[in-house]
Amino acid sequence: MKTILKSIPRDFLLFIFAVICIGFAQSIVDSTFNNFLNERFHITSWQRTFLELPREIPGLIVIFVSALFFFMCNRTLAALSQFLAALGVFFIGLLAFNYSIMLVWLFIYSLGQHLFLPLVSDVGMELAGEGKTGRRLGQLQGAGNFAAIAGSFFIFVGFKYFRLNFTIAFIISALCFLAGALFIYSMRKNKPVPLKTKFKFRKEYKLFYILSILYGTRKQLFLTFAPWVLITIFMQKTQAIATLLTIGGIIGIIFKPLLGHAIDKYGEKTILAGEAIVLIFVCLGYGFSKKMFSVNIALIITSACYVADQLLMSVTMARATYLKKIIVDPQELTSTLTMGVSIDHIFSITVALTGGIIWKLYGYEYIFLLGALIALTNLFFTLKIKT
Predict the structure, then answer these.
(1) What distance in Å separates the CA atoms of residue 245 and residue 151, rounded to the nearest whole number?
(2) Which of 188, 221, 248, 324 registers the highest number of CB atoms within 10 A of its CB?
(3) Tell me: the pLDDT tens digits for 317-353?
(4) Model-level pTM?
């Protein structure tokens, strides 16, 4: 083991450790947050919808926040993002005295998370050899995935057998985010990108922007409403959500590195088109299984779709490698990835609010019908990819 560790480049090893800490911390939050909202504040599905404003506005403004820290290199900014995430989740655990105050801490936590979204791909591709960016991103996602299994399993065991509560869970998560920040900060620093490149908006990247928008809207529907369906429609507890995340994590240990390898071998167009086709069926299964089958069978189908969507989220690395292939100026990679996050959040916030209205007026089923239509649109634009 010592020999293997010595053979791995120092910065990649530090980044792997950071991704593991962050994956563990994120899994704790993902496994508990929706149940925390339901049990601590007893919010309605309509209130849950509006919760997306403070949680997703950081994604909308991330390009401007990133520009404020133009004097930082991408690695230092990545470390700062995890410090903000740690701060936000720590205060959610200790100082969420009421719903309104909790939203402030949620905003800080979400700002850190959204700052990190483009940076993890950017730093990961920096640490990759020529022609192996997909494989490197797959390795990083695999490591984070392994940590996510540990985090969700920790929540399952802690809540089921050891009377773990939300406060302790969030404090542990904050400490892990902080450890991730320290690992990233220990990496060698590179040069900051000049401020003039921060707001580049090029027509050459038009298809990347469109794919980012479609990914953001589809992702938002699942992040907002998928766990809420399991909790409020199928009455699933914290342990059940943690179990599904664990199952998805176990499958992802093999799936995500293979996905990265497949991106390098078959190209982004093939992988993204496959994702869109599978997602159409996932959305329809999630939305309409309860109308077509018994409750028990519907729960199994819905749970399987929830796990499948977790795995499909990792296909986002194909969008990052596609951008790297078409980038006009390598210095624009970080800012263009960040611009993609900001653009997609204009639409993802809108679709979250629209989804809340649809749920209230027609039922949750039609939210996922909308998701299937978005996936179909995504397939149409994916087939236009050329590298």
Answers:
(1) 9
(2) 221
(3) 999 999 999 988 888 888 888 888 888 888 888 888 8
(4) 0.81
